[in-house]
Amino acid sequence: MRQVVIPRHGGPEVLEIRESPDPVPGDGEVRIRVRAAGINFADILARIGLYPDAPKPPVVVGYEVAGVVDAVGAGVTTVHPGDRVVALTRFGGYSDCVVVSQAQVFRIPEQLSDAEAAAVPVTYLTAALALYRMAALTSGETVLVHNAGGGLGIAATQLARLRRATVIGTASASKHDALRSFGVDHLIDYRHANVEAEVRRLTNGRGVDVVLDPIGGASFGVSYRMLAPLGRLVMLGISSMAGERREMWRVLRSWWAMKRFDPLSVINRNRGVFGLNLGHLWDEQRQLRTLMDLLLSELRAERLKPIVARTFPLDRVAEAHRYIQSRSNIGKVVLTM
Hints:
By secondary structure, this protein is of the alpha/beta class. The protein is built from eleven helices and 15 strands. It folds into two domains: 2-120 and 306-336, Quinone Oxidoreductase, Chain A, domain 1; 122-278, Rossmann fold (3-Layer(aba) Sandwich). It starts with a strand and ends with a strand. The radius of gyration is 20 Å and the shape is globular. The strands form three sheets. Strands 3, 4, 5, 6, 7, 14 and 15 form a seven-stranded mixed β-sheet that branches. The longest helix is centred in the last third of the chain and has 16 residues, at 285-300.
């Protein structure tokens, strides 16, 4: 099999294509011939050395794949060779062959392409956990989605709209027309407008009920200030720390600016603050599967639609990483095999 390996921390140029023996599925495991693999910001952080969960180099990253089952181990009953599936992988997804537990494998709705299917697990599960489980979003509430043009932002917009919520999104002006077509009600150009002031204007000074913040650094504090009474902030990432390569000034600046929440402020202002890292929920298979089944049902009913910004062949993975870091994408970026 072919894999993308991070041999050492650095810029996109460090990524290498290597060949390894095909893995063999054990009891309860499924082997998948991968056709598409999703790229997430955690992969970028792992490459530059800022993702503490990633194994030390050399390492193969990647959290989600879509493809075809070609072998199963003893005791596997949920899928069979020849089935088109999508799977969650805890690293190892940048490969054209993976082995995973059957609990992490799901059949693909027929109408989805391989690239669309690979765009689902991480972004839609994260958005569903944030909005439906942690924030308990209800009809009529208002959600602020930072980086609304990314895969997570678009997934969150679609899920919020299913709950009949109003969506405010931040994105560069060039993405506004596309995001309106995806269901964002109000858009703020974060590069040229004061996001906090615009949110106050749009909500008549009340603030928003839910904020999804994958940026980190000073953004967490600003997001907290924008919450209405009984508002909920869900912190999803620290993309503000990521540059082309590991730069300690950027890391320290983002860390120093990060808000430390005062418990008395949370109590007196009637607000909730949540942290979410899907990579630390691998043992919560029952909860993840329940949400994944819900998402697949909505995808089959075509009430959700993954948006793929662009696909790159495996041997152009460095170009794909640069594309994501340029913040040019509207939707998910996917590797194809």
